[in-house]
Amino acid sequence: MKRDAGLYERFKKIKADSKNKKSYPYISQYNARNPFYIIQFNVETESPGQ
To answer: Is 17 left (phi over 0), alpha (psi -120 to 50) or beta?
Structure first.
């Protein structure tokens, strides 16, 4: 979360709670601002006997 300086500064100001419920909105905002994509390549393998 440190890569998003504005959001990180606000996140540091909240007090921790036992179940971290207060951090959920910050995590959602970070994920919306910084999408992460995984590229999947499908590799076709040859079947033995063909």
So the answer is: beta
